[in-house]
Amino acid sequence: MEESITPIPIFSTLISPFDSSLNINGSDSNSSTRKPLSLWPGMYHSPVTIALWETRSRTFERLLDPPLDAPPQSELLTKTPSQSRMTILYNFSTDYILREQYRDPWNEVRIGKLLEDLDALAGTISVKHCSDDDSTTRPLYLVTASVDKMVLKKPISVDLDLSISGAVTWVGRSSIEIQLDVTQPPPESAEATGSVVLSATFIFVARDYKTQKAAPVNRLTPETEREKSLYEAAEARNRLRKSTIKGDKKEIENGGLNRVGALLSEGRIFCDMPALADRDSILLRETRLENSLICQPQQRNIHGRIFGGFLMHRAFELAFSTTYAFAGMMPSFLEVDHVDFLRPVDVGDFLRFKSCVLYTESESSDQPLIHVEVVAHVTRPELRSSEVSNRFYFTFTVRPEAKAKNNGVRIRKVVPATEEEARRITERMDADSLNS
């Protein structure tokens, strides 16, 4: 006779959005105005993302079922950065469960999850700035357009409290720039305020929900000296972006082809005479890794599309693995060089992430640099099509303790085998030199 086995009960770690404990507006949680669960953003996301959604539940309900026949906002408001400012706090020192959700193997914060939270906070801030507090108008559709360079100044411990604070620092006609600062006190300090360990700049663009065309956003008036300084710096970056786009073709005509040819010369030796190739170099195509997934409803945002933070998280994990396989030593994250969101990704899309090491800088033996590109493709087999949805650029080095154990291991130089690969390398080098 077989012994009966008692099933192990499994419970959701998330609270229903309809529970009265989450209804911060004090209205009846069983109200008929509550939207179906299928319309709520995906429940996959981190505790921080969920908390952000809870704090603005009334706004979410309007965004989840926008009145498309309602008129657009008729009059733009003028707001200050302080009106959009938000801060979130990770109580790592006392919340052991939260700490475990963010811990990596080195007792530091998982960077992929942090990127996800940064995108969620930036999105919340953009919604806050664009809100006109008028329930009779249709809301704007806000999407992440790009992320500028963010540099990790020091490792982020998972044992110490962490905070992220940010606000809108600049607006164009339909674009919004948000700066976020991640702060953490040093281990020996008992002070509540900490030093900035990472800064990030997100650019969102506004679209009309009905027409899908660019829509104007509320104006911004900086008040303090720091806010004015951030506004001017953002204005300068915007001008630089525009001039860089215009100058790309000119650069290729005025010597860019010579640089491409120089890069290709070593790659041709690998292709035509591999026995004579430099053993300290490797073809770009030999550094590639790839993974794929079907985008699930649990990964959607408030607009029903795939959450940008989730894409950044997955891209980072692949870039980390690519660096590990390439260097032969455990990587250490340094920078997100740039992220482009070229087209939205929908629930049900077949998404392929393809990564490679674009180039390395090993002149400094103390901290060799490994630059990794990850490109996300939305693939539609039934239509025999594949479109690029995102481009991510990361920079890694190797962990000091790993390097100490493998002192004789050298970081190899990456060389292209095709003209297209050589162009990608030169374009990224130029972009990195402009951002440095």
List the helices and strands and how they pair.
Layout: H1 47-55, H2 57-64, E1 78-79, H3 81-84, E2 86-90, H4 96-102, H5 111-130, E3 140-147, E4 150-151, E5 162-171, E6 175-184, E7 195-208, E8 219-220, H6 225-272, E9 281-283, E10 289-294, H7 308-327, E11 331-341, E12 350-361, E13 369-380, E14 385-398, H8 400-405, E15 413-415, H9 419-435
Parallel strand pairs: 1-8, 9-15
Antiparallel strand pairs: 2-5, 3-7, 3-11, 4-11, 5-6, 6-7, 10-12, 11-14, 12-13, 13-14
Helix pairs in contact: 1-5, 5-7, 6-9
Family: Belongs to the acyl coenzyme A hydrolase family.
InterPro entries: HOTDOG_ACOT, HotDog_dom_sf
GO biological process, one term: acyl-CoA metabolic process
Structure characterization notes:
There is one protein chain. The chain is of the alpha+beta class. Strands 2, 3, 4, 5, 6, 7, 10, 11, 12, 13 and 14 form an eleven-stranded antiparallel β-sheet that branches. A two-stranded parallel sheet has the order 1-8. A two-stranded parallel ribbon has the order 9-15. Residues about 20-35 have low confidence and may be disordered. It contains nine helices and 15 strands. Helix 6 runs antiparallel to helix 9 (about 420-435).
